[in-house]
Design goal:
The complex is a heterodimer.
Chain A: H1 16-26, H2 34-38, E1 45-46, E2 60-61, H3 69-74, E3 77-78, H4 80-95, E4 102-104, E5 112-114, H5 117-140, H6 151-163, H7 196-211, E6 219-221, H8 224-230, H9 238-243, H10 245-257, E7 261-268, E8 272-279, E9 284-288, H11 292-297
Parallel strand pairs in A: 1-3, 6-7
Antiparallel strand pairs in A: 2-4, 4-5, 7-8, 8-9
Helix pairs in contact in A: 4-5
Chain B: H1 6-17, H2 24-49, E1 54-55, H3 71-84, H4 94-111
The chains are: A alpha/beta, B mainly alpha.
Chain lengths: 300, 119
C-alpha cells in the first residue's frame, strides 16, 4: 500500500454537482414503495462472503485512475461491511502518512477508481441491497409458485409490500439490530432461512398478542440473543453467570410475569434454527427440532 | 456437450462444500454445537434458577421440514401454535406460513398490529 510517489494524473473530470445529480437520479425517492424500488436501475452488490479474502487495505493504492464515472455508478458495488472496513483502512493509511490516490476494485480486475468512489458507493449500497432482496421476494410471490388456496394471502402480501417505504427502518428491533432496514422482511418471501431479525420480530408479535387480553401468560418467547448467550457460557462458573445482569435477570422476569415456559430460539452453526423450551416448574428443558434425521443423530 | 472447466469448478466449490444440517458432513458440528448449548442451558439454570435442569422426556410438537430453508418458519410456527393454537407446520403448507408471518411482521412494523390469535 505504501508507495512514495504521488500520481498526479489520478483524476476524473467530474464535479460534486455531477455526482449528486447522478446519484439522485439513480436512487428512488424516500416515498417510493418496495415495488417501485424493484424497478429502479441500481448496480449489483458483491455479497459479503465473496469479499472475505479481500483485505480492504490491499485495495488502497497510489496508482493512476482508470475507471470512468459511469463505472463507479454502474459497476458492482462492494458490500457495505467491506466499504466500512475500507473507510477505516483509508483513515488509518492517511494517519500513518501513506499516500493513497485510488481504490482498486476488488472484483473487476485492473480497474482503479478515485477516492470519491467510496462515498458514492456508500450512498447507493443500501438501496441496491434493498432492491436485491425485494426483487427476489417479488419473484417468489409469483402465483405459479403457490397453491390455489394461498392466492388470497399472496394478494394480501403484495398489498402490504406496496405500502412498505423502502427507506423505513425497523425501529422495533432491539440492540444491534435497531438499524435494520425493512429489507430483511423480504427474507420471509423467499427460500432463504430466516434472519435473526425475522425471529425477533415474530417474538415481539407472539408475546404482545398473548398479553393482549390482560391475563398473565405462562409462556414467553425469548429473543434470539438469549440462545446466542447460552452457546457461550457452557464453561462459565456459577458466579460469573450470576454476575451477568442479562442472564441473571431472567429469574426475576419469570417470577414477575408468572412464566412457566420460556421458548428459546437457537441458531446452530449459523445455518439451522431449533427451539429449546425451559419448563421452570418441572425443572426440565426440551429440544424442538424440525429435521428428523438430525434429531436422531445429534441426541446427547 | 457441456463440461465443467476448472474455473467453473472452483467457483462452485464454496456452494458444494457449504454445510447444510441435513448433510452427514454437517451433522458432527451440529451435534457438537447442540452439546455446547446443552452445557450452557444446564450452567445457566443451575446458576440462576438454583437447579441444574434436565433434558425432559416429553416430545416437543414441531413440524418436520423436507427442505433446507424452512427451519426458521418451523420454529416460529411451533412456538406460535404452543401459545395461540393452530396447525403445526407441514411441507405442503410451508409457503402459507411464510406468507402469513410476513404479513404479520410487516403489519406490526407498519401499523403496530399484533393480532396473532386471529390466524
Amino acid at each position: 500500500m505504501a508507495q512514495p510517489t504521488v500520481d498526479t494524473t489520478a483524476t476524473i473530470a467530474v464535479t460534486a454537482a455531477d455526482i449528486i445529480a447522478e446519484v439522485s437520479a439513480l436512487v428512488p425517492p424516500h416515498s417510493a414503495s418496495v415495488l417501485e424500488l424493484g424497478k429502479a436501475r441500481l448496480p449489483q452488490v458483491i455479497p459479503e462472503d465473496d469479499l472475505e479474502d479481500f483485505p480492504p487495505e490491499d485495495y488502497l493504492v497510489n496508482l493512476k485512475v482508470t475507471g470512468t464515472f459511469s463505472d463507479v455508478l454502474n459497476g458492482p458495488i462492494p458490500h457495505r461491511t467491506w466499504l466500512c472496513k475500507l473507510q477505516t483502512a483509508l483513515e488509518d493509511a492517511q494517519k500513518s502518512g501513506h499516500i493513497v490516490t485510488a481504490i482498486r476494485h476488488p472484483t473487476v480486475m485492473g480497474v482503479t477508481f478515485p477516492l470519491w468512489a467510496l462515498p458514492v458507493w456508500d450512498s447507493i449500497v443500501v438501496p441496491s441491497e434493498q432492491r436485491m432482496h425485494w426483487v427476489e421476494a417479488t419473484r417468489w410471490l409469483s402465483p405459479r409458485n403457490h397453491r390455489k388456496e394461498d392466492q388470497g394471502l399472496l394478494e394480501e402480501a403484495r398489498k402490504v409490500m406496496a405500502r412498505i417505504p423502502w427507506t423505513m427502518k425497523a425501529w422495533a428491533l432491539s440492540g444491534a439490530q435497531a438499524d435494520s432496514y425493512m429489507g430483511f422482511l423480504a427474507w420471509f418471501l423467499s427460500t432463504l432461512w430466516l434472519a435473526e431479525r425475522n425471529i425477533d420480530i415474530m417474538a415481539i408479535c407472539i408475546n404482545a398478542a398473548a398479553a393482549a387480553n390482560g391475563e398473565p401468560v405462562p409462556v414467553y418467547m425469548a429473543p434470539v440473543y438469549l440462545g446466542a448467550q447460552l452457546q457461550g457460557i457452557g464453561g462459565w462458573d456459577a458466579e460469573r453467570i450470576k454476575d451477568n445482569r442479562d442472564l441473571r435477570g431472567w429469574r426475576d422476569d419469570a417470577k414477575e410475569n408468572g412464566w412457566r415456559y420460556i421458548h428459546i430460539p437457537v441458531n446452530l452453526i449459523n445455518i439451522h434454527w431449533v427451539v429449546v423450551v425451559i419448563d421452570l416448574e418441572e425443572r426440565t428443558y426440551l429440544w424442538g427440532m424440525s429435521l428428523v434425521h438430525v434429531c436422531m443423530h445429534s441426541s446427547r | 456437450m457441456g463440461y465443467v472447466t476448472s474455473a467453473c469448478l472452483y467457483a462452485l466449490l464454496p456452494l458444494i462444500l457449504r454445510p447444510y444440517p441435513g448433510d452427514s458432513l454437517a451433522q458432527d458440528s451440529y451435534a457438537e454445537k447442540r452439546a455446547v448449548v446443552t452445557r450452557g442451558i444446564e450452567a445457566w439454570t443451575e446458576a440462576v434458577f438454583g437447579t441444574r435442569f434436565v433434558n425432559g422426556a416429553n416430545p416437543y410438537d414441531i413440524g418436520v421440514q423436507k427442505d433446507e430453508h424452512s427451519c426458521g418458519v418451523c420454529v416460529i410456527n411451533a412456538i406460535k401454535t404452543y401459545i395461540h393454537g393452530g396447525d403445526i407446520f407441514n411441507h405442503v403448507t410451508r409457503f402459507r406460513y411464510r406468507l402469513e408471518y410476513f404479513i404479520k411482521a410487516a403489519n406490526y412494523l407498519l401499523l403496530g398490529e399484533v393480532s396473532f390469535p386471529s390466524i
